[in-house]
Amino acid sequence: MNAFTELWRALLGWLDLLTAQPGAAGKFNLSRVGLVNATGFYVVAALSSIAVPGIAGGIVPGWMQVAVGLLFNLLLLLAILLATWGTARLLRVGVLAIAVPSIYALGIVEVLSLPLVFVRSDAAAIALLGVRGFMFYRAAREAGRLGIGVSVAFAILCIVLLAAIPLGLYMLLGGGQGIG
User: Fold this and answer.
1) DSSP for 7-27, written as a single string
2) Out of 23, 124, 155, 178, which could bridge 137 as a Cys pair, Cβ 3.0 to 4.6 Å?
């Protein structure tokens, strides 16, 4: 199966996961190759979220801006992978069963958020976190076969990581400057 076919099946799998259709988890390639393809899709989505706003504004982003933006997105990906690995390890379930749909969820929301780049609204950012949280919940609940409470906890952990990492990096790289 090639990467585009796998991406299409993952999109269909996510539509089925979001609408609670039976057999939705079977549409994902829950192997190492599937993990690599999901990561590749997320990297392409992250690169597009870096390049599209700049190009639409008439400014081509420089290599340093692309590198820093990609590094930031890879940090978010690493955080989600660590949360997935820890959850799966603690509960003795397959890591890939949760990781592959979760990474696709990150990429899908990244692509869907491209039109919202020019809105720059706190409400839009919070709504996107909510969408990601629901998708993490569905990935853990259906694909990972976890209980409701554990799936909610996994989704909350992922959302806290996605919200705390940018704030923590801002505080670390801000040189001790206040926000006021």
Assistant:
1) HHHHHHHHHHHHTT-TTGGGG
2) 155
If you compute the radius of gyration of the chain from its CA atoms, what whole number of angstroms results?
17
Which pTM was predicted? Answer: 0.88
171, 179 Cβ separation under 8 angstroms: no
Could you tell me the end-to-end alpha-carbon distance of the chain, in angstroms, rounded to an integer? 53
DSSP state of 121: -
Residue 100 contacts residue 28 (beta carbons within 8 Å): yes
Cβ-Cβ contacts under 8 Å for 171 (sequence gap 6 or more): none
**DSSP letter assigned to residue 114:** G
